[in-house]
Automatic annotation (TrEMBL):
GO terms for cellular component: late endosome membrane; lysosomal membrane; Mon1-Ccz1 complex. This is Mic1 domain-containing protein. PANTHER family: COLON CANCER-ASSOCIATED PROTEIN MIC1 (PTHR12897), REGULATOR OF MON1-CCZ1 COMPLEX (PTHR12897:SF4). It comes from the Eukaryota. Pfam families: RMC1_C (PF07035). One of its GO terms (biological process) is regulation of autophagy. The lineage of its organism: Eukaryota, Amoebozoa, Evosea, Archamoebae, Mastigamoebida. InterPro entries: RMC1, RMC1_C. It comes from Entamoeba nuttalli (strain P19) (Amoeba). Residues 48-208 form the Mic1 domain.
């Protein structure tokens, strides 16, 4: 079988500029099959023991991001990048994960996203957790995925803040007590102004006498 253009370029040592130019031409062709083939060949090369090309995953990602592909095709390429890079233990830039998460949310593919989160294709990360938590009203299931992510990362102070913001003061206190998270009384006072649970308010004043 005859070698493709990208394969020939990849065999030439320190040929990064020509390889990326070739990949850019592939992106401009809008031929999804060809783009995926070239993408895989590049990642296979930079992930091999005998790599002779100084091309980073970030460079590949930036090249795709700046192209004129559809959102759906971008999403397919991001998934291809993550899959190929994971198999070759290559470092994947955080921006790539964020772009994939944002793309899936915009296309209302929350089922696909929850599957990727569940099987750890998308790793636990504070930036990703923040994006998921922003979906509280629009896609509640992703909000809870964000909460679970914070728990796995043991970011208990952020969890306490979120529960306080949502007037779930009892849960905030439970986590704070369990994981020794300090809650300033001024912060509690800020969130109980419009709280009508007399029993909870009484309990809070026992914990924070300065609220009385």
């Amino acid at each position: 079988m005859e070698e493709s253009v990208i394969e020939k370029e990849l065999k030439i040592k320190n040929n990064e500029q020509a390889v990326m130019s070739c990949f850019q031409n592939s992106l401009n062709s809008l031929n999804c099959k060809q783009i995926k083939f070239d993408l895989q060949k590049i990642i296979e090369t930079i992930g091999s023991r005998h790599c002779n090309q100084a091309i980073t995953m970030k460079e590949i990602f930036d090249c795709i991001k700046q192209s004129k592909l559809s959102d759906e095709m971008n999403e397919e390429l991001y998934m291809k990048m993550i899959t190929c890079a994971t198999q070759r233990v290559l470092q994947i830039p955080e921006d790539l994960y964020i772009a994939l998460v944002n793309g899936l949310i915009q296309q209302r593919k929350e089922f696909v996203l929850t599957q990727l989160l569940q099987y750890k294709v998308i790793p636990d990360n504070n930036s990703i957790a923040a994006i998921l938590l922003q979906q509280q009203t629009s896609i509640p299931c992703l909000y809870y995925c964000g909460l679970d992510m914070l728990k796995r990362m043991k970011n208990y102070s952020k969890l306490v803040d979120l529960y306080l913001m949502n007037n779930n003061i009892s849960m905030a206190l439970q986590i704070a007590n369990q994981y020794s998270v300090e809650i300033p009384s001024t912060k509690v006072q800020e969130y109980i102004k419009n709280y009508n649970d007399d029993l909870l308010l009484y309990q809070l004043k026992l914990i924070f006498p300065e609220l009385a």
